[in-house]
């Protein structure tokens, strides 16, 4: 390697030329890049030669050859007319049409263009009242939104919350927050029930919307809601919205040269993370309340931290919990059931299992293996499940595995809005878990 | 400004020589020879995987923790829910599709290109239906843009909540999108019927069961909106709207309608559920802002951060982070190590693209003392990222959306970082 500095010197000389050239005009940089590549190639070639045989006296002339050719390439590039730095341009738009696509048919537009505007434009003909709506709502919506639209578990609340918008935790419901009734019709008709969107008729939708208004004490149960009066219905929070005023309220005041030093005298920690988050290897996350308080933390001044605290309670507490859980003696079967219990969290929003399990938006899942499909008393199944029940099909591990992997393919038309358990391990585990309730 | 790179190339040569020297010095203190070096390792002896083994590669197993994660209790069902990009473990600016966050309202659907239709109707000269193949024949463009959910950092309105930048700031991705400008499709249908375009809107709607729909003012629709079908050079992933989604640069992610199936030119906004019940910002007095589309300038330090503690002790430390603005380019990022008393201007990894993530670095010599790390972004309009206090003063604490506050990590003497709020 001792000789390399000598040999490299001329190469650096070339770099110098390239750099010198690059300082010319903006538009030359493109050529400079190409020249750089040429230079790099020359250097690489030279490095190869150096390592091959240092003593070879032919070498120097070979290197000179390569370098000469690089110089020639650079000179050639320099001589070319300037190329603009940016050759990119927006995609051209033609004056006239390009003749792509085809004309949409009226019935196609009618099928897709169903959105409803605030003034009621777009509403289909129809009518309904809260009296009829109550039954429909109980049947199709209450499992998630509650019998009185008050919301079940974490599912959205649709009623109440009046006069809470300025509170610490505003309750934003159709009644307390939504500015237009058109939006309720539009959304319910197109997007609900969750997992069965687009199945309501206009009359059913008017009735359900009326029931939601009724639950919010905005109409009585005889009020006939229809395409004629919906657009004119005045919602309580109609005037509760202002168009984005950040430009006036914030941008001007916040667009000033910011402070760089001595911006504050002292800084203290006023709040620590409410939740520590474990990120297990199998995915997802587990939140754990953070027991730490702000006591004992240093304050900061321009001189830095007021002191360096001793090693302190840190998220390790959490790690210990996880470790303890793993250490528990358990045979393989029990462990699988435990894993299955975890997977069942994905089902819990809709299913119960175990002693006293009730139907939620999905049927209870006790004693499932060996049970006739679609057979839980009092649960309203989709047609495909009713058909399976009529045929007397029985749940076994194979069918359940297939169903849970891809519910919508295995049972075309099922109401279960669940995309499936992708991992084979999850399928095995959940079946083990469900099997632990065979006796229920 | 390519010239700028040239001198730094030399500086790099000098720098790497110094770094090499540093390594030598470090190694000199080793007492025993490193068997990883002195012993012949399996991987240096036995052959590895063949080219027929991995037709489409996934990250090596040692990186299997770098995944999207959800927080179960945030929503009633994982089908209408959110997960978070592992931004703590990524570098540079481009988000790989496979770990870019997902937010859907009725699950991610499987829609074949062959079954894909896009309708343009409403106030147009000729309502049209396009197939996927039709879209491929329009002139297209490539742009890197960030897509941020309006609710990103939303939990922080109530103070420091989840301990991890993946969870506080991970509802964002940054990809190179390929698509057709929306203006080209509108031009194809003809906007003569719309008359004066000034007060016109386009309503865009997805093909999934939620049929997420949003109203976009015509001015934006004709500006930089893309009907995109590729990201980072590949087909979109199912969870990001395969085969076609809308890209609305700089504006909140909910407007980037996935599986887009219909575009309607209209004389009024639709005031759909997603622009009334949701994606409106309740202020302290109970009134709410609507049409708050732009994502204001924001930045966050991704490492060190709660999921990325300092494990190497005192000495050279790379502070790395991301900055972005829906108003254009990031022009400057400042970093504070003492909770906002003193600020140092960070180095941008590369000049920022407009409405795209920009990587910034502060290379420091850590003395092992606790730090309160913060980053503060500025964009081309001169806007400076606000503090939590500034935001709360103007908006209260109930906004849910558009929280672009300066984030603080407390780093203790052991290098462990935690999400905190400071005075």
TrEMBL record, chain A:
Organism: Planktotalea frisia
Annotated protein name in UniProt: Cytochrome c2
Coiled coil regions in record: 35-62
Gene3D superfamilies on file: Cytochrome c-like domain
InterPro entries membership: Cyt_c-like_dom (IPR009056), Cyt_c-like_dom_sf (IPR036909), Cyt_c_1A/1B (IPR002327)
Domain Cytochrome c: 128-216, 335-438
Source taxon at top rank: Bacteria
Gene Ontology MF annotations: electron transfer activity; heme binding; metal ion binding
UniProt keywords, alphabetically: Coiled coil, Electron transport, Heme, Iron, Metal-binding, Transport
TrEMBL record, chain B:
GO molecular function, one term: heme binding
Swiss-Prot/TrEMBL keywords: Metal-binding, Molybdenum, Oxidoreductase, Signal
Residues in Oxidoreductase molybdopterin-binding domain copies: 111-272
Stored InterPro entries: Ig_E-set, MoCF_OxRdtse_dimer, Mopterin_OxRdtase_euk, OxRdtase_Mopterin-bd_dom, OxRdtase_Mopterin-bd_sf, Sulfite_DH_SoxC, TAT_signal
Record-annotated Moybdenum cofactor oxidoreductase dimerisation domain positions: 289-407
Pfam families membership: Mo-co_dimer, Oxidored_molyb
Cofactor: Mo-molybdopterin
GO-annotated biological processes: sulfur compound metabolic process
Residues making up the signal peptide according to the UniProt record: 1-30
Name under which the protein is recorded: Sulfoxide reductase catalytic subunit YedY
Gene name as annotated: yedY_2
């Amino acid at each position: 390697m001792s000789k390399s500095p000598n040999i490299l010197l001329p190469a650096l000389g070339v770099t110098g030329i390239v750099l010198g050239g690059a300082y010319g005009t903006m538009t030359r940089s493109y050529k400079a890049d190409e020249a750089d590549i040429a230079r790099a190639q020359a250097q690489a070639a030279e490095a190869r030669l150096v390592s091959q045989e240092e003593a070879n006296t032919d070498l120097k002339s070979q290197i000179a050859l390569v370098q000469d050719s690089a110089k020639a390439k650079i000179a050639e590039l320099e001589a070319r007319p300037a190329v603009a730095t940016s050759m990119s341009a927006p995609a051209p738009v033609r004056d006239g049409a390009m003749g792509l696509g085809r004309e949409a048919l009226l019935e196609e537009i009618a099928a897709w263009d169903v959105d409803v505007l605030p003034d009621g434009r777009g509403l289909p003909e129809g009518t309904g009242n809260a009296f009829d709506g109550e039954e429909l709502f109980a049947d199709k919506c209450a499992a998630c939104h509650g019998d009185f639209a008050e919301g079940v578990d974490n599912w959205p609340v649709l009623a109440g919350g009046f006069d809470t918008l300025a509170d610490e935790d505003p309750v934003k419901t159709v009644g307390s927050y939504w500015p237009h009734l058109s939006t309720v019709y539009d959304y319910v008709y197109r997007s609900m029930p969750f997992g069965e969107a687009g199945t309501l008729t206009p009359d059913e939708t008017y009735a359900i919307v009326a029931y939601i208004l009724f639950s919010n004490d905005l109409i009585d149960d005889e009020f006939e809601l229809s395409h004629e009066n919906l657009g004119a219905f005045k919602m309580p929070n109609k005037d509760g919205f202002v168009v984005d005023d950040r430009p006036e309220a914030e941008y001007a005041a916040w667009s000033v040269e910011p402070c760089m030093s001595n911006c504050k005298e002292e800084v203290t920690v006023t709040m620590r993370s409410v939740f520590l988050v474990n990120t297990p290897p199998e995915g997802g996350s587990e939140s754990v309340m953070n027991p730490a308080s702000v006591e004992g933390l240093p304050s900061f001044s321009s001189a830095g931290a007021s002191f360096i605290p001793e090693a302190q309670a840190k998220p390790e507490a959490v790690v210990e919990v996880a470790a303890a859980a793993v250490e528990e003696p358990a045979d393989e079967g029990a462990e699988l059931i435990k894993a299955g219990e975890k997977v069942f969290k994905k089902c819990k929003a809709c299913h119960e299992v175990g002693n006293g399990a009730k139907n939620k938006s999905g049927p209870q899942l006790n004693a499932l293996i060996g049970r006739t499909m679609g057979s839980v008393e009092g649960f309203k199944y989709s047609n495909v499940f009713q058909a399976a029940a009529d045929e007397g099909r029985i749940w076994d591990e194979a069918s359940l595995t297939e169903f849970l992997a891809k519910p919508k393919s295995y049972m075309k038309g099922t109401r279960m809005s669940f995309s499936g358990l992708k991992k084979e391990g999850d399928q095995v585990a959940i079946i083990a878990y469900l099997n632990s309730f065979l006796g229920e | 400004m390519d010239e700028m790179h040239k001198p730094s190339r030399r500086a790099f040569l000098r720098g790497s020589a110094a770094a090499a020297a540093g390594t030598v010095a470090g190694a000199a203190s080793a007492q025993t020879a490193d068997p990883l070096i002195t012993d012949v390792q399996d991987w240096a002896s036995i052959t590895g995987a063949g080219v027929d083994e991995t037709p489409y590669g996934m990250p090596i197993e040692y990186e299997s923790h770098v995944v999207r994660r959800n927080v179960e209790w945030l929503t009633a069902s994982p089908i209408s829910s959110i997960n978070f990009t592992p931004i703590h473990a990524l570098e540079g600016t481009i988000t790989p599709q496979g770990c870019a966050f997902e937010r859907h309202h009725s699950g991610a659907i499987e829609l074949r290109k062959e079954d894909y239709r896009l309708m343009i109707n409403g106030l147009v000269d000729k309502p049209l239906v396009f197939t996927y193949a039709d879209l491929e024949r329009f002139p297209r463009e490539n742009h890197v843009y960030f897509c941020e959910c309006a609710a990103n950092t939303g939990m922080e309105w109530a103070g420091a909540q989840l301990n991890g930048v993946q969870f506080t700031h991970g509802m964002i991705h940054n990809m190179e999108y390929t698509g057709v400008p929306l203006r080209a499709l509108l031009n194809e249908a003809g906007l003569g019927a719309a008359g004066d375009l000034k007060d016109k809107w386009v309503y865009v709607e997805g093909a999934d069961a939620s049929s997420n729909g949003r109203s976009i003012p015509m001015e934006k629709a004709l500006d930089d909106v893309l009907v995109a079908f590729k990201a980072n050079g590949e087909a979109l992933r199912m969870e990001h709207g395969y085969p076609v989604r809308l890209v609305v640069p700089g504006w909140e992610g909910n407007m980037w309608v996935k599986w887009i199936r219909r575009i309607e030119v209209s004389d009024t906004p639709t005031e759909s559920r997603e622009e009334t019940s949701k994606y409106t910002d309740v202020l302290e007095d109970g009134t709410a802002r609507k049409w708050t589309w732009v994502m204001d300038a924001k930045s966050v330090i991704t490492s060190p951060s709660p999921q990325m503690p300092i494990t190497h002790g005192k000495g050279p430390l790379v502070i790395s982070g991301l900055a972005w603005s829906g108003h254009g380019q990031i022009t400057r990022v400042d970093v504070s190590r003492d909770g906002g008393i003193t600020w140092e201007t960070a180095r941008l990894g590369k000049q920022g693209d407009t409405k795209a993530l920009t990587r910034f670095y502060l290379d420091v010599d850590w003395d092992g003392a606790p730090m309160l790390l913060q980053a503060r972004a500025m964009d081309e309009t001169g806007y400076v990222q606000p503090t939590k206090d500034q935001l709360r003063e103007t908006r209260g604490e109930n906004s849910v959306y558009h929280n672009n506050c300066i984030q603080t990590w407390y780093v203790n003497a052991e290098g462990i970082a935690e999400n905190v709020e400071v005075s």
